[in-house]
Write a structure and sequence with these properties.
It contains three helices and three strands. It has helices at 37-46, 48-53, 59-73, and strands at residues 7-12, 18-21, 29-34.
């Protein structure tokens, strides 16, 4: 467990899309993962986000989250 400021929120918006929420203020159901690309890989492998959101998540969503993580690192 880490403190919230060290985590990144992944949200499922009311429109049905998934996004990274660096501010923690966007509308939608959220799940937190640590701000590390390895944490995202572990969440994908263990299906942690799918359990948090109680739904299956398409591979395209994971790809876009990985791209967003890479963009945030630069």
């Amino acid at each position: 467990m880490k403190e919230k400021p060290l985590m990144i929120r992944v949200i499922h918006t009311p429109e049905g899309s998934f996004e990274l929420d660096a501010t923690g203020r966007k509308n939608g159901r959220g799940a937190y993962i640590c701000a590390d690309k390895e944490c995202l890989k572990k969440a994908i492998k263990s299906k942690g986000l799918e359990r948090s959101f109680k739904m299956s998540i398409p591979k395209e969503v994971y790809d876009s989250l990985e791209e967003a993580f890479e963009a945030d690192e630069t």
